[in-house]
Amino acid sequence: MERLEPYKGFQIRAxxxxxxxxxxxxxxxxxxxxDADYIATPSDHPTPExxxxxxxxxxxxxxxxxxxxxxxxKGKGEELFETLYGINPNTFEVETVSxxxxxxxxxxxxxxxxxxxxxxxxxxxxxxxxITFGLTNVFSVPQALVDQESTKRRVEELRKRAAEMKRxxxx
Length: 171
What we know:
This protein is an alpha+beta fold. 30% of the residues lie in helices and 35% in strands. It has four helices and nine strands, in the order E-E-E-E-H-H-E-E-E-E-H-E-H. A five-stranded antiparallel sheet has the order 8-7-6-5-9. The protein has a four-stranded antiparallel sheet with strand order 1-2-3-4, with helices on one face. Strand 2 and strand 3 (22-28) form a beta hairpin. It is elongated.
């Protein structure tokens, strides 16, 4: 099942997954080729209205600027659509993992070579990050919201939590 709705220059499409949950994506109106720029919901929603409203909020709050849109559209499954943050319990540092539309988690950082892991269909990306990369206190944000103040505050809170964990471990 699917539902189409035009909104402020975008064509929003809500569609139902095999699980019965709904996702939505928005494309610039008038672009009819599959490689066109688009934004999408990072997680399932119980109704098509909820999925469409999530996309409308992103558009209304101008959370999709040209730079964010450029980061989102890498094509062929490479586009990043979610960033996950967590604490490494060995180093007590906040680490970042990216999830692309192809289901691949990627983690790299200072003095660390690129590590990848594919998320099996139906699996939660946060759980996969906890299991595969050993991170704790994991949270995720849609790629379009990575540079928002709310995300920066959450990352800073996570850094404070990591510092508390480090102090507790050294006592």
